[in-house]
Amino acid sequence: MTTKKYDGNDEKPDNDEKPDNDEKPKDDDELQISKLRLPQNFESIVGGKKLTQYLPVRRPEKQWFIRTHPNREMWFYAAILDFQEDRDAYIVEEELWEELANEVVPKVLIPTITSLGHSFIWPIRVPGEDGRIDDWSRTAFLAAEQACEQWLRLRSNMQLGSYETIIAATMYPDPTWPDFGLEEWLRLGFRDKIISSTDHTVVRRLRGEQ
Amino acid sequence: MSPDRLVDFRRIWFVDFEYQPVPGDLPSVICMVAREWRSGQTIRLWKDQLTSRVRPPFSQQPDCLYIPFFASAEFSCHLALNWPLPANVVDLYVENRNLTNGFHLLRGNGLLGALFHHGIGSIEHEEKTEMRDLAIRGGPWSDDERRKLLDYCESDVIALSKLFDRVFPKIDLPRALLRGRYMKAVARMEATGVPIDEEMHDLIMRNAEDIRTNLIRDLGAVYGVYEQGHFRHHLFEAYLTKMSIEWPRLPSSQLDLKDDTFSYMAMLYLKLKNLKILRSHLGQLQMKRLPLGYDGRNRCMLSPFASKTGRNQPRSTNFVFGRAKWIRRLITPPPGRALLYIDYEQQEFGIAAALSGDSVMQDAYNSDDPYLSFAKQAGAAPETASKRTHRQLRDIYKACALAVQYGMGADSLAFRTGRKPVDAKALLNTHRRLYSDYWNWSENAVSYASLMGKIHTAFGWTLHVTHTTNPRTLQNFPMQANGAEILRLACCFLCEAGITVCAPIHDAVLVECAIDDIAETLHDSKLMLAKASRIVLGGFELRTGVQTIEYPRTLGGDDNDDIWRVIQTTVSR
Predict the structure, then answer these.
(1) Which residue, of B156, B175, B192, is where some domain finishes?
(2) Global ipTM
(3) Could you tell me whether strands A76-83 and B226-227 are parallel, antiparallel, or unpaired per DSSP bridges?
(4) Do A29 and B41 touch (CB under 8 A)?
(5) B552 CA to chain A: closest CA distance, Å?
(6) Pair B301, B174 in one domain
(7) B148 is in which domain, residue-wise?
(8) Residue A32 CA: distances (Å) to CA of A113, B460, B496
(9) Contact, B376 vs B389, CB < 8 A?
(10) Is residue B408 included in any domain, yes or no?
(11) What's the pTM value of the predicted model, to 2 decimals?
(12) What are B268-298's pLDDT values in tens digits?
């Protein structure tokens, strides 16, 4: 690289050109600059989709406004064993129903979502072979049916021994349901809680085995 | 169309000026050195050789590139010399800021700091200070001093070329040129300045003590907490006891007199509002004069790209819009002229709605009043509600909308709105429920930043993430930093169209024109601001509002009428 010094009075540098025209706005400016725009949709860049790894199986808190899944094919009827020791619910497979008849209760497992977008599985007892059902379960089921269409919350009425429903006074937008099917709902809710043999720890514990 | 690859530029010039800063005015130029990147051709010119020229001694055409360090300073020299500005600029100060934004640079963001950061040896700090002092001292300079100053100027240019060699591979050239383009607008705005009622400014400064006394007498008397011009803690304690006001205390049991606490308490107890205003404004009277130029205009360095979000960060003491709001009453157009204060309405809410693609939020923004719409969407206000009928409710929902963007929790929101934490939590939950797409997008933005170690705007202004980065900063970055992008583009369009911009102010511009041209200037300016928002937000347009002031009116204050009345009465005596 050669260095050539210029002191103002000798050689004229390369400015013997037309006047500068930098300041004039250009007609296609909007288009040209827009081409440089970088995406601001970080989800598509990082693939940052919320991953559901677990779904609680529980009844809704009394303050929660909820909606139940409007597709009734997503409501799963199952025999449930409520293991008091660890307060967990287990799905019992059909071939064990007779053997565990005294331990299981028929329940419907309903995909449910709160107004804040948190999903869970709501188990509600349904009538057994005798067709009888308690008022708590009956009113809970009615509320679940109503929650297919409306945001509501449940409140216990101890005097009546049943639930009462409170419909949201505001028109909330419909919920955005997780985009997976019933099988995934059940997998996420009952990952290690399916009893398919009498060797299952819970069954053995109920028998008084270690 | 300018090249977007370095190889396509015919000439690449590194340029540096030495100058004497003149507070409130354009600088007094001392010398300049320019060096061409490929050929090494070096041009050294002293003051008299510069002032005799009508343009720089090198090409500034669209096929050439101009590389300075802190371009607005070099361009202020261009403007002082009546030289045109170059077509293409890559400012190494700005690009180094962009490459290191979020990191702590051991030796700062100046040229020496940048060189040190990139492992390039340079002159010592002491030597630079000595040369700077020599320039600031002013002439006449001896031949030896002239040579030293030119050598020093040339050493900066050589350092600049070394820095360029090191950082260029990391520079995103097309967007760097866009940032360089803004630096030209900055130079123009700094040179224009904000017209000030100089006489009134002088009167206020000369009578600061009397104003202070009268403010305390007229507005502070009812409180009885000032004694000999000073706020007395024991008198304030007595006042609080008399009024049965439970005031927050520090762990030391002293009264908590922080500004935030005063604001909160003034919200709970309206009678304290004037005391709060009085306290903050008495402080402003102790400040030094605004730097005013020969023509009574407030000019100062706008410090572009100084904040993490890329916003300008002028020193608040030097910038009229950095001072207390009542000082804006000093802003007045010259005879025959008008000022247009044009701002983006609810800019951050609009940006959040646009970038997240949340249609419910966009509906709210596109209504007349986004914050009231939020309340309506939440079912808290009837469809017929207006700002007039539901002002308080609107304020609460506004605070909530802003709190979300700043990542504020329920407790902080409760503090700001004077509501119970449980209510504040419910408000935040309502926001989360209504604007779920926004929340997903915002959480993804934070995840992206954490995963990639940085986050960027639509035009590449980048914040690097370190272990000390506050997640709330990341959450708010897209709104603030894209807001800065929008304003930068708007300033470019306005200045390039020949519209006189006195200053950029966060989400607004102060434009000046002849009274006869108000309608045309306003129309053109609003179109340009809208265009800037469309470009940054991918087609979504932000609304603008305007306050027009014709000579001899002044830019209005809002709730500072009492203060201003006392000031006027005092100085008119």
Answers:
(1) B192
(2) 0.82
(3) unpaired
(4) no
(5) 32
(6) no
(7) 6-192
(8) 45, 16, 16
(9) no
(10) no
(11) 0.78
(12) 777 888 888 888 778 777 778 899 999 999 9
